[in-house]
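Here is one chain, start to finish.
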Amino acid sequence: MYKILILLVLPLLLFSRFQLTTHMPFEAFLIKKIAENNVRIRTIAKDYSSKTKDLKYSEISRLSNSGIYLHFSLDVEKEYELMLRKVNPKLKSYDMSKGINKITKKGKVNNYVWTDPILLRDIATNIYNIIVELDSKNKEQYKRNYELFLDELDEIFLKAREKLYSSEIYNIYVFDDYWAYYAQRFGLNLYKRKKAIVKADEVTPIINYVDKNDIKAVLVAKDSTYNYARSISGYTKIAIKQNDIFNEFVLSNLWELSKELSQ
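Its structure:
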């Protein structure tokens, strides 16, 4: 009888995985770079929105039952944490960007730190420490994955820097603060533009502004801001570049952005 029980339980012990919850697939991707298949990750949303989803109690309960929540301290993620904590007061919360200075020169907080491959090294270190705290028995495996991840980040940084070094696109219009860390890392100048269609009386001033500052492109997220970019491009003929920093595959997305801005 005991032998049968052991045979039944042994596979569960060998292949058991701890669970955690995070906001979006791109965060799950970063976590799995280190934890691999030792963790089962539940994501709250597939696509980014600054507003929380209208979740049913059963869904909030399912998400909070993991007992662990990893995030980047985005405003919407803080709201989700409150929702999860109401159901599970013992929820453990970890900020993957802990220790990173996120105050801009203008004194504002910018949480989109994963757009910088060098800051991603710090994020990787945080994730590694969190995962080891949660599952110390597989520490050596996590350490190997962590070191391989750092090597991958170094390679992405060097390739991106080489790609952008000779690019003529270094002055860029933007509507959002998503790419601030990326721009800072690679010496790009971002010019913030209000989210609005260019009006008739703004045409001449905006053409003069683009010429004066040698702006070569307008960079937008894959959302409604594309229409604003079209109105600028229509008058100035500058190129429209698109990038989704919430893309699940963070590293390849950074590389694609680098290639896009080098053309």
